[in-house]
Amino acid sequence: MLIKATKNSFEAHTTAGLVLVDFYADWCGPCKMIAPVLEQLAQEHDDFNIVKVNVDEEQELAMTYGIMSIPTLVIMKNGHLVSREAGFKTKDQLLNWINQYK
Length: 102
Known about the structure:
Layout lengths: L1 E3 L5 H5 L3 E7 L4 H16 L4 E6 L4 H6 L7 E6 L2 E7 L4 H9 L3
Parallel strand pairs: 1-3, 2-3
Antiparallel strand pairs: 2-4, 4-5
């Protein structure tokens, strides 16, 4: 499932199970490139959720997680950050990365 989160809903969406968080901005080229990949993953996999956080709208969340470049992708497991990657990733790269934490 693909979920857009705000600072008020972020914790509720990231505390249970495995979650891939995409910190992005609408104007970011690589963010636009990875968006359809994430949408496809969300449709094909129900064993993890994908949460999108717009860093322009949610600056406090971006600061909390130390986001210095976008896209930054974060894997959270049961509310804990377990891994982070920056930049565009292919579908296969994302799946290989996510599968390490299942």
